[in-house]
Amino acid sequence: LEDLQDAFDFCYKVHYLPGEDRSRDSQYTQQLQALQAKLQNLDRQRREVLAQMQQLLGRSETLQDFLVQEVGAWRDRQRCSCLGAPADTRLRPLETWFTELGQGLFQLLKLLRALEDLRQKVTYERDPLKAEIPLLEQRLRELLTYLLKSAFVVEQQPSMPNTCKRPLVLRTASKFSARARLLVRLHDRNHHMETKIYIDKNPPKIKGFRKFNILTSSSKTLLAGDTPQDGLVCDFQYLTLKEQKDSRSGKGSKGAGEGPLVVTEELHLITFTLAYAYCGLELELETSTLPFVIISNNNQLSSAWASILWFNMLSGNPEDQQFFSKPPPAPWLRLAEVLSWQFESMAEQGLSQDHLLMLAKKLFG
To answer: Any idea which architecture 1-149 has in CATH?
Structure first.
């Protein structure tokens, strides 16, 4: 395109003489006809390039929809894995696919900008670049925004180091860790990409719902490994929680009748935000952990873990923090599967049908 445009531009400046009547000059007429042919060829090539870009964007949308489904399936596997299920939660294949698509889309963005530079140098009446480039760029930016927002995931759910078999139960004043990952391994090394974490960024409107502060640093720079294969990781370790004291209650603890939920049925969320920038595109990405329970002593651990089991067994919506205000009943087949996972995670062997039948008789008579 650039070569065609340069050739047309040169001929236009050398041969075209506006304002002069040279209709009887056969040589000039031939030059004008050649110039017109060059313009038609340039216009045709521009339209072909735009059509190819439209086709590539359509394919990218199809691929992106597939990747978003794959991330959803991965989240389901991760949730089951937290309950002890033997699930594959590796992120490397997804990371490879997301990065490849991201590279392709950012390459199209660079090509669009190169086309706009060409249009600035040479344009004409009914120039297809003038109308199409803004629409294509808007569509491309929407695709990239959706891709990047889908690619920011919680790789490691909040967990304390000594209860690796029971994540999502945290104790005040005890250290825990959580990690998020951006599956698109593309970033501007000159740009400071900061990650922040919040607990209960949008708390549920429940009377008596406890509030907590995250002690230690709640912001970090996104870490990029020494090689591109290491990925882009926000790793928060040695975090601790402290309950905000309520001056009205005196001790800050939940009093009798203060709220509808007991401590071990109160669900909390940690939200990661990331200030992302690459190739002139700046976004704030956000992702949240699965809901977790915060206890103050080990006596509450079993009840808290029961809440985590019940929630993750029956709800796929992390925002459903009021789940226990009206918890649904669990179908026996679903409960039996989760109980088998629990045994398998602790004893390396699940429950047989005879075992489950015995439990069912004890539960249901």
So the answer is: Up-down Bundle (1.20)
